[in-house]
Amino acid sequence: MAHTVLEAKHISKSFHDPVTIQVLNNINFSIDSGEFVSVTGKSGCGKSTLLYILSTMDTDYEGDLLIDQVNMRGKAEDELARVRNEKIGFVFQFHYLLNEFTVLKNVMLPGLKLQKYPEQEVEYRAMERLKILGIQEQALKKANQLSGGEKQRVAIARALINDPLIIMGDEPTGNLDKKNSENVFEIFKELAETYRQTLLIVTHDQNFAERTHRIIEMEDGRIIR
Amino acid sequence: MNYKLIVSIAKSLLLARWRQTLVAAIGVTFSIGMFITLLGFMNGLNDLLDGLILNRTAHVRLFQEVKPNPNQPVNASVDYSGAYNFIQSIKSSGGRLDIYNSAAIMRAIRADQRVLGFAPRITTPVLYNSGVVDINGAINGIDVVAENELFFFNDYVTTGAAIDLKNVANSIVLGKGVADKLLAEMGDMIQVTTSKGELLSLKVVGYFQSGIQEFDKVQSYTSIATAQKLMGKSNSYVTDIQIKLKDIDQAPAVAKEYAALFQTDAEDIQTANSQFETGSFVRTLISYVVGITLLIVAGFGIYNILNMMIYEKMDSIAILKATGFSGKDVKLIFLGIALSIGLFGGFLGLILGLSLSLLIDQIPFNTAALPTIKTYPVNYDLVYYIIGIVFSIVTTFFAGYFPARKASKIDPVLIIRGK
Fold first, then answer.
1. For residue B140, how many other CB atoms are within 10 A of its CB?
2. Which among B16, B320, B327 is the nearest to A77, CB-wise?
3. In this predicted model, what pLDDT tens digit does every residue of B81-139 receive, in sequence order?
4. CA gap B396, B309 in Å, rounded
5. In terms of C-beta density within 10 A (0-12 exposed, 13-18 middle, 19 or more buried), how is residue B81 classed?
């Protein structure tokens, strides 16, 4: 049963410094659950800007953003944080793990924050996700002792910990070599096809984009495909 | 709010770079330790200087001044009651130096709740006879027990024991200067002549060193009974009553009240030693200024260290925010970090301050002026320690609060995309 997970209505954004440049112009689209969507376009076309608006981290835009049919406009900062915690999983270009913590704790943190499950349960779930991604034996290492590919897999495990509505990725393979990129793609694909996980990935890698279920192509702040 | 999680994150961030944490804590420790040490030492010295005066000065002194009677007979005349009476060349009358009705006055003082204690005294000028030479001086007849209790007389008796004044009949404790002039050894008999011409032999049972040489060249002490005998007076003869109050600030009021009540002269310590008041005030002021300066400098140091720590952790803040931690959580995490550094560093600072104080307390300090002082004085007032720990917590709170507030408002997008 597919339902709309995320909907963008007339989203526009301009930078005003030093001169006003419109980076996003009347963006409209929606994503249903279970979709594996990629956003592509040339550098500077506004795809990352769009992603950060969709992720609720950037609140300076016009138009409406609906996540799980709830409008995000006018929500307080801590309410948005809760939405990110509960409904969105994030994978960045640079893995962005906390080097102060172990791999396991990194994965657990958003879960502990959510407080939906007790700590032991969160730990169990974190191990489960690390197992799916094949890095469970690294669980007790510090985050900075891993290789780039492993870090990205940990970041994906972290994105999955709270069973998010949607996983967003900002060039998740941009910093990886061919083999690791392929690995990450396979993981995403498996998540989408086996676990029916909704994914929204920003990438400029055409090869990556073409293999997703749906491509949103952007140019000069507009959706052209 | 999940405080347990926030505490555990703060702890991990602190311990992950424990060297940096330690340096920050040591910064706090050093500041607070120095604050406590310096203030303790300065106030120790202040107390010492204050004690020089306060220990041997009565808060209120009752005595009988030789002065012209303000009520001259012509004032009592009914005929001239409405007139201005000009009288010239008045002389002081009577010359009576003892306090009227001293026994009743002492009873009244003893009953007064404001009074800590009092010591009666007889002060009289004498001549010390040394061969053909007579040396001017003064003898104080004292109640040894009361003087010890209130004015620490025993502390200034460098040789012999003060209590012998009471136990040995016709005994005297000579000022060190007097003893040197008379070449008087312990146990020697010396002769004194009073202004009335009475002659008495007294046995030397001790030397007295006050720290003020001029004083020691003139003064000697004997028991009150011996002094009465020396002067040929009855046992109610007392020229001075030295009163110590529970609260020194009440002295002017009490002096005024007693002067009216007992019809004697009364002098309070603030009037008698106004230069002491000023000196004491200036010294206190200096120590406060130094203390505040130290705290301000320490405060900026602490602020800098914490500021740096937090700016180094901007990446972590961005990740925490992206994965669902709110600005408030981030603020609490960094406040937690700041306060633990403040608490830990401040506590070590107290220990450091106490150890340095104890160390200073062991350094020899010998001065002729202060026979009882052997090492540098240190004040261990709990107030400095309380100020120290409270300050370290308050400063680290603010030093952490402003960067933490900034961190809480950071747009994670800027940091994530800025890479």
1. 20
2. B327
3. 788 888 888 887 666 778 888 888 888 888 888 888 889 989 888 998 877 888 889 99
4. 12
5. exposed
Give the separation between CA A149 and CA A142, rounded to whole angstroms. Answer: 15
- Give, for B280, the enclosing helix (H) or strand (E): helix B274-312
> B321 and A80 in contact (C-beta within 8 Å)?
no
Interface confidence: ipTM more than 0.85:
no
Task: Measure the CA–CA gap between A68 and A33, rounded to whole angstroms.
Answer: 10
- Report whether the peptide linkage leading into residue A18 is cis, meaning its omega lies within 30 degrees of zero: yes
Cα separation, A180 vs A97, in Å, equals 17
Q: What is the DSSP string of A141-202?
A: SBGGGS-HHHHHHHHHHHHHTT--SEEEEESTTTTS-HHHHHHHHHHHHHHHHHS--EEEEE
* Cα-based angle A206, A210, A215 (whole degrees, multiple of 5): 100
Tell me the pLDDT tens digit for each residue of B225-281.
Answer: 888 888 888 888 888 898 988 888 888 888 888 888 888 888 888 888 877 778 888
Q: Which helix (H) or strand (E) holds B180?
A: helix B176-182
Is B352:B30 a contact under the CB 8 Å cutoff?
A: yes
Say if the Cβ atoms of A90 and B419 lie within 8 Å.
no
Using alpha carbons, select from A160, A164, A184, A158 the residue that is nearest to residue A105: A158
- B413 contacts in A (CB within 8 Å)? 52, 57-58
